[in-house]
Amino acid sequence: MRITQYYNNRIHTLKKQLIETYLFILLIFHIISIYIYLFWLKNTFPIYYFASALVFYIYSYILIRRNFNISRIVIAYLHFSSLHISLIILNFIDDSIVGFMWLIPMPVCAYVFLKRKMVVYFMFYTIFLMLFIMVYAKYFDHHFYKYDRKYLRPTNAATVIANFSLICLFIFYKLKINHLETKAFEYSIKRKMKEKHNLKPIVIGNHEYPAELSGRNKNELMIDHHKLENLFMELDRYIMYNNYFTNPSIKISGLCSDLNTNINYLSRAIDHKGYKNFNQYINSLRINYVKNLIEKSDLTKVTLMYIYTEAGFTSQATFNRVFKQFEGTTPSDYITSLIPSHQ
Length: 343
Fold this sequence. Notes:
This protein has 343 residues and is mainly α. It is 73% helix and 2% strand. A two-stranded antiparallel ribbon has the order 1-2.
């Protein structure tokens, strides 16, 4: 495994760990809240809110374990969760404003997982929800249930502790992710500097431009780093959206027009993520797709040809060669190793 790819896998693992820990904290809080309202306050009305939240948290956890796109899960979660929290805040706003604290971690969560423009969006989105809740509470009927404030102290304390823990958790993991991103970027620059003598110049028209990065200053390198990261994320989302990599005739030139970029820059973005070229990137997606099909399929009813053609390979010889490059073993040996687990 290449070093850059190793760092990217580490970052992805950290993000999954963060989401799982985050959902675990919320799960504990909601279980405690259900206990308090059911057995102490003798009020079942808020339990429906907490129970629906538990279902959504469990569903989000299942999606993460099945390796769905993390950014999409986070965006969907932030929208649903903020609206769900707004209903709870309206329920308690006349007796306690502590519920507003549940909206504070939203932009912090976006800062860890999403692009800068999405962070700005969720900052304004959170402010809008707070203002909307206050205006609605002032001018419209929102009295679901009347609470004695002294009985709300345990849930208020739990709310403060839970949100403070979540913010600290986000900051802690963001620092670890930034550290890995910096190390990956430094390694990428060092590797490019070592290979600069083997790089061919980029030819545009009748002019040649040097491909090495040694003449750029640090700020330019950082800007270039973020641009390449964003371009690759856009490429990855576009290809994964409808499994475009399963198309045997997929070409980098066609993707360039769809993404409004050029072949040279898109190739640099792919190389920046640790892949030798576009074909290696596409083949990595296809092999992962093949492995998922093998694990999910009944191998007594489907053929290997069906599996590799579904992934976009046109010949078994090419499929065998590529599979062994990535997995270090042949497809048949890989399937044989899985037979006990299937049984």
